[in-house]
Amino acid sequence: MSKETGQGDIGVGRCREMGRDMENQIFSPSPLEFPQWGQPPQASGSPVTLPASGLLSPVRLLVTILLTIGLFACSSPGNKAQPKNKPTEQASDSKLTVFGGSFDAIDEAGKLLWRVDAKQAKYIKEKEIGQAENPYGELFQDGKVVYKVTADKADIEQNDKKLVLILRGQIVATDPVNGVVLRGNELEWRPKEDLLIVRNKLTGKHKQLDAVAQEARVKTREQRVDFFGGVIANSLEPPFQVRTEHLIWQVKQEKLIGDRPLQFFRSKNNQITDRGKGDAADIDLKTKIVTITKNAQIELADPRMQIVSNSMAWNLKTEIVTTKTPIRILHLTENILVTANQGELRIPQNTVYLQGKVNAIGKRRQAIRSDKLTWYLNNQQVEAQGNVVYQQAEPSLTFTGETATGNIQQEKIVVKSGGSGQRVITNIVPSEPKSGE
Questions:
Q1: pLDDT score recorded for residue 237
Q2: Whether the Cβ atoms of residue 158 and residue 174 lie closer than 8 Å to each other
Q3: CA separation (Å) from 11 to 22, 70, 83?
Q4: What are the extents of the domains in the chain?
Q5: Average pLDDT of the segment spanning 189-218
Q6: CA angle, corner 340, sides to 290 and 390, nearest 5?
Q7: pTM above 0.85?
Q8: Backbone angles phi, psi at 362, to 5 degrees
Q9: Domain 1-187+197-205, what fold?
Q10: pLDDT tens digit sequence for 161-186
Q11: Rounded to 5, what percent of the chain is helix, strand, coil?
């Protein structure tokens, strides 16, 4: 054996001893399994499993790389050592490049929480971020895929303490069960909280709804989506829009719930025909009924009317507005104000049905009171029933009877008695003489 060969053997033995000492000092037993760094990556990609108990820190990753390089150098006498002034790519930019990799995480029970695959990925030690190109991910809850995620590029942060997965880039998240598609530039998955967050230029799409907001929070088990910040939601058929700051979408129940001030817009032929607002509302996407439950107000474009009540139900299909609470209707064109305990407005028929302490007042202070009133908006005809009282200012007179018909705006009202022999009572109040007469 030559001196050179003998020195090589001694060097190999000392390096092996040093390697074992360093490995014993640095690493403790761990269930993590990583691909062999000295072997070329397989075409299908080797998965990196990240259990809930802990991740391999960037320092330990770097030590593993350096230790492997050192052992290879010592075991190959014919290879020359790397010059100190020419560090390897891993040492110079502190990153690990993996071609065809999988970022996985499991919980304490061994259930998969997420899996993100990428054609090309790299790990940046300083930022503790994995960068992936064209990633595809699956998010799991109760052993089932609850969302599928794709992106052009993404930053991947896997926090083992909080069990959080964060993706950044042009995110597309799809629910394979109900078909909800969420798009944004940032995604956060918190499996222990059953919470998926998509934010930053968020859009949501579904066969029943299109939405825009600053952020969406999804409870996957409940199939519930909460939209926050500048929410604009559009129901496709019939065209209807909701604007608010917080909107709850119960996807399985096909309902929208608003607990903050809302605005509503109904359109025909790309023109807004009716609008409404309220402090709280429920919207049934199946029946197309909007129930404004607090401080309800609806405005019609034709005829120009304003309807106000504490709560109202607005059927978008039949275009019928109903309320069981006190209602106030103002006809802006005719300047007629009507109040009642409850009412129904049928927009296609231009007819209003009112019940309970009905009081209608015209622009010249003429008024009609009754138990019930039917108001035909096309010709301003009215039909009153029950305890009818009609009054007008000039000349000052009052009619009392059981029914009345006529045009309140033209002050042409016919008051009739009922069938029980009741008579119509007429009261005429003479006008006071003017001063100087």
A1: 83
A2: no
A3: 16, 12, 18
A4: 1-187+197-205
A5: 95
A6: 145
A7: no
A8: -90, 180
A9: lipopolysaccharide transport protein A fold (2.60.450)
A10: 667 888 888 999 999 999 999 999 99
A11: 10, 55, 35
